[in-house]
Amino acid sequence: MKKVRIALAGFGTVGTGLAKIIRENEEWIKKRTGAVLIIEKVLVRDISKPRPFVPHPTTTFTTNPAELLEGNPDILVELIGGTSLAYELIKKALEKGISVVTANKALLATRGKELLSLAEEKGVGLYFEASVGGGIPIVETLKESLAGNRITSITGILNGTANYILTQMSQKEWDFSTALAEAQKRGYAEADPTLDIEGIDAAHKLAILIFLAHGVVYPFEKLRVEGITDLSLKDISFAQELGYVFKLIAQVKEKSGYLQAGVFPALLPKNHILAKVDGPYNAILLNGNAVGPIMLYGQGAGDLPTGSAVLADIISLVKNNKQVNNTGFIESPFEPAKILEPLSVVSEHYFRFSVLDKPGVLAALAGVLGEYNISIAQAIQKASPSERAVPVVFLTHRARLKDVKKAIKEIDKFDFIVNPTVHYPILP
Amino acid sequence: MKKVRIALAGFGTVGTGLAKIIRENEEWIKKRTGAVLIIEKVLVRDISKPRPFVPHPTTTFTTNPAELLEGNPDILVELIGGTSLAYELIKKALEKGISVVTANKALLATRGKELLSLAEEKGVGLYFEASVGGGIPIVETLKESLAGNRITSITGILNGTANYILTQMSQKEWDFSTALAEAQKRGYAEADPTLDIEGIDAAHKLAILIFLAHGVVYPFEKLRVEGITDLSLKDISFAQELGYVFKLIAQVKEKSGYLQAGVFPALLPKNHILAKVDGPYNAILLNGNAVGPIMLYGQGAGDLPTGSAVLADIISLVKNNKQVNNTGFIESPFEPAKILEPLSVVSEHYFRFSVLDKPGVLAALAGVLGEYNISIAQAIQKASPSERAVPVVFLTHRARLKDVKKAIKEIDKFDFIVNPTVHYPILP
Fold it and tell me: Catalytic one among B205, B222, B247, B338?
């Protein structure tokens, strides 16, 4: 039986998960591929660490990156993350004609063009199913199943950590820091959670989806990226009262060839299909000009789900080794995306004003909003006996984000405004 | 540019949809495949019918099946349905070394083994993404993305007609025949709706999913198949009162290498992810031993969604013409499934008894259930002043279906039973 020799960079959660699946499902994988997968060499940081689980009796461990590809493996699996050593390893593998499987969204979002061009030039595989949505087959779906569709929109919950935090805040009325601490305790959030809670991780994934769906490069630094660190329990409960839940949304919409893209917290109506995606789950809702709406849902992270996606890529490379399909395009179209100004996005909006309870306040607020063509759909005003400031919440009809930002700037100059105005869009 | 010559059998809803997508997305498909797709010949029933839309300036129409493959096309797309002419056409194409794309679930469920063996022998493609779930990429997902997983369960809403009817009954309190008439009016149900409402269509699709997930043939005639024709509004509203909705479920569970499979109406807790799949939508919830739970959701029928799936297969064949992947297995394992007796399935249950309102009735019912190890979790008894019979509804704890059937048989002998007992499982 054919042997597929794998070099594995990184033996953390996902690397171990992958090795376990390969062991557990070995006979099944033979039926699927006609091959046996052997993890021959593993690059680790600490060679002295005890390894209760070893991928294969012949596996050797090394701390020296230069050694990893020495034996000319069939496939390099890169799971160390980061954009420096991972970049060097992948580049070296591709140059040697070795196919690569990676879960590295940060690297692909920022240097994907360069690496995919190199893979194309060398005629080898560079697969990355695990980079978006954990075990959810979204990369394959965009490259293959929906290849004949023009994708008009993608709306995703792409970060399980942020979604877990928002779910706990909504359901248990925890504040942000309590929910974050719990996420860290459960292993859903890292010690430094910045990438997750600031929306950066979701934005990396969005950049990859944009490339797969539209065949263009959207410069990562031009994406609108807003995280959830400022979200307060107050807004979550007002939203609930109005029939909405908060989600951290990654979205791209295509309008006459131009793309409007960003990551931002938004309110979703409770009956929206993405509103039910709770806890560490991810989901991606796509619209294609033929298929209509499609949603894919599953675990966005974790050892086995992400390992499953890495394994899917390995199997695909083993089966189609003569005809790799890295991008879903015949010649990777690396043109820059035509970008629609993120602030031109139109949607309904949520406002919470902190005001002094005195006559004329509502009229003044409504007046400024009206000047910017923002009309009010619903309002809540609550007495707050213990506090000096009274919250006033508005839901508006559709308005441009740019106008909303301008209106807020003007409103916050009023002397009856106690705290800066809070604003979130309703899912565009 | 490379030309891909397509012979199309059938120019109804899906065939026209396919031709429209190919036209609309022609430039895009070139970027994806490096080829132009040309529908050269179309087999129709009535040549004199006006054709306001013609796939390509060079397309010719014929009513003679023998003519369809005369020009040795690259791909036959079979969309006429049925199991006789469709079978002959596909067989002939495969024998001539022509790859086939089909949406024909009835044919695949009953004669798939024979046709897939022939395709394997000839080394050509036989692709069928459109046979299950319309535009949802479930076939590709099972063949490729989840190929490294052992699938432990599949639970699907696979028939959009039945789901539309159940949704209308639940939300609008229509009875079955009103909802069916509306489905027919909207084009969701055919003039003869038997295949849809009796669960047969869903069972065809389930047989295909079982083959793809487990690599075994589950004889179609051995599937448990129960439809929704007897479902009454009474049961739907009792279920709602208890926090459940009715769905027509297609399910297979793997237990130690044995498969338990069937199509049946069942109650789903309202917060179950499949409970929110409404109207003509389909969804498939899978569990893999690596990926965990995954759900795919989309339109299960219709010209463009199903056309999108057919196009996905065509694109896949064009791109991977040297390495077709019909089944997801290296050598199609056509062994028969090891079948777990459908009646051995264990779940919670819903009962509605029609009884005379007299002393001792509840005790007698509970007594018989107890004899069969069925214990009651919730009960509703309602006075019904206008009718002689009073409904008594029980939800039970987990019990074997076989025991449930026996208990009902015994209970229905009581003289206080006015109408035969109604029973449905809660989603196992």
Answer: B205
Q: How far apart are CA B75 and CA A381, in angstroms?
A: 65
Mean pLDDT of B372-395: 88
pLDDT digits (tens, 9 = 90+) for A139-188: 999 999 999 999 999 999 999 999 999 999 999 999 999 999 999 998 88
pLDDT digits (tens, 9 = 90+) for B167-188: 999 999 999 999 999 999 988 8
Cα-to-chain-centroid distance, residue A234: 26
- Vertex A368 angle, CA A390 and A348, to 5°: 80
Mutating which of A139, A245, A294, A320 best tests the B interface, going by the most B Cβ atoms within 10 A? A294
The interface pTM score, or ipTM, of the predicted complex is 0.95
pLDDT reading at B297 higher than 90? yes
Contact B145 A320 (CB under 8 A): no
- List, in order of start, the domains of chain B with CATH numbers: 2-134+305-319 (3.40.50.720), 138-300+336-342 (3.30.360.10), 343-425 (3.30.70.260)
Q: Which of A105, A143, A205, A247 is the catalytic position?
A: A205
Q: How far is B296 from chain A (nearest CA, A)?
A: 5
Print burial letters for A49-70: b (CB count within 10 Å at least 16), e (below 16): eeeeeebbeebebeeeeeebbe
Distances in whole angstroms, Cα of residue B81 to Cα of each of B187, B304, B389:
17, 17, 46
Residue B214: closest C-alpha in chain A: A28
CB nearest A276 (choices: B141, B276, B333): B276
Q: What is the pLDDT of residue B187?
A: 84
- How many residues are there in chain B? 428
Q: Do B149 and A297 touch (CB under 8 A)?
A: no
Q: Give the residues of chain A that fall short of pLDDT 50.
A: none
User: What is the structure's pLDDT at B323?
Assistant: 84
CB of A299 within 8 A of CB of A163? no
Quickly list H helices, B262-340.
Answer: 303-319
Tell me the two tokens of residue A236.
């979550």
Q: pLDDT digits over B90-108, tens only?
A: 999 999 999 999 999 999 9
Q: Is A205 a catalytic residue?
A: yes
Mean pLDDT of chain A: 95
Element (H, E) at A178: helix A176-185
pLDDT score recorded for residue A10: 96
Helical packing angle, B200-214 and B105-122, nearest 10°: 30
Check: CB of residue A36 under 8 Å from CB of residue A3.
yes
Q: Say what angle helices A26-33 and A303-319 make with each other, to 10 degrees.
A: 30
Nearest to A296 among B17, B31, B296 (CB): B296
Distance from CA of B361 to the nearest CA of A (A): 42
Q: How far is A309 from chain B (nearest CA, A)?
A: 7
3-state helix, strand, coil in chain B (%, to 5): 40, 30, 35
Q: Are A361 and A278 in contact, with CB atoms under 8 Å apart? A: no
User: Mean of the pLDDT values across residues B380-389?
Assistant: 78
3-class secondary structure, B289: coil
Query: Residue B140 and residue A135: Cβ atoms within 8 Å?
Result: no
Quick check: B414 pLDDT over 90? yes
Closest residue by Cα to residue B190 from B181, B198, B199: B181
Angle at A400 between CA A394 and CA A406, to 5 degrees: 75
Q: Which of B1, B145, B320 to mutate to test the interface with A (most CBs of A within 10 A)?
A: B145
